[in-house]
């Protein structure tokens, strides 16, 4: 007894209907060209703007961190110029407070992508790094250019004492105030 073949079953070697075809071949995501068809598709990666295959190449957290890191580097440069090159301490606390404020505001640029505690931790990390880097550059200037012989901790403790702690505190308080939501 012959069983009837369904009308919708394709014969061997026959191509499936066009409705089952992909809009672009899977390998197209690895090559150059128009990405609009891939970004418009379903899924968490499509058009989210989070940097994962969205075409932007960055996330709000990444952009905020880069801006804050650049501000911290400028703060370290300010410490080096004031302490190391000009040999003045006037304005160091204000410079670090301004650096802390700018770093905190830059971290806030990430919006809701960062929790408040994570943003504060990043800001404090960058402010402390700015003070450490600026003071290490000052010590390096003293050793290389001025012919100093003391190690970094001895030199900084002898020359600036508790001012370095006050710099960190001023930057930290300003960063905390700037990251409050």
Range of strand content: under 5%
Shape verdict: elongated
Alpha-beta classification: mainly alpha
Cα Rg: 29 Å
State the domain count: 2
Order of helices and strands: HHHHHH
Q: Separation of termini?
A: 79 Å
The total of helices stands at: 6
The residue ranges in which pLDDT falls below 50 over 5 or more consecutive positions are: 43-55
- Could you give the count of β-strands? 0
Helical fraction equals: 55-70%
How is the main sheet built? none
Instruction: Give average pLDDT, whole number.
Output: 80
Question: How would you characterize the overall build of this protein?
Answer:
This protein has 181 residues and is mainly alpha-helical. It has two domains: 56 residues, no CATH class; 120 residues, no CATH class. The chain contains six helices and no strands. Helix 2 packs parallel to helix 4. The protein is elongated.
């Amino acid at each position: 007894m012959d069983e009837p073949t369904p009308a919708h079953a394709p014969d061997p070697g026959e191509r499936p209907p066009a409705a089952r075809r992909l809009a672009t071949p899977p390998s197209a995501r690895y090559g150059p060209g128009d990405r609009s068809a891939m970004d418009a598709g379903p899924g968490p990666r499509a058009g989210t703007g989070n940097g994962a295959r969205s075409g932007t190449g960055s996330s709000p957290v990444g952009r905020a961190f880069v801006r804050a890191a650049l501000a911290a580097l400028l703060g370290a440069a300010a410490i080096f110029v004031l302490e190391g090159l000009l040999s003045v301490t006037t304005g160091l606390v204000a410079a670090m407070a301004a650096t802390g404020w700018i770093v905190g505001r830059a971290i806030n640029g990430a919006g809701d992508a960062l929790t408040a505690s994570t943003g504060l931790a990043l800001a404090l990390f960058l402010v402390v790094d700015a003070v450490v880097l600026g003071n290490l550059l000052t010590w390096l200037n003293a050793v290389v250019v001025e012919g100093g012989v003391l190690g970094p901790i001895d030199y900084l403790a002898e020359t600036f004492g508790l001012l370095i702690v006050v710099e960190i505190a001023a930057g930290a308080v300003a960063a905390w105030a700037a990251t409050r939501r």
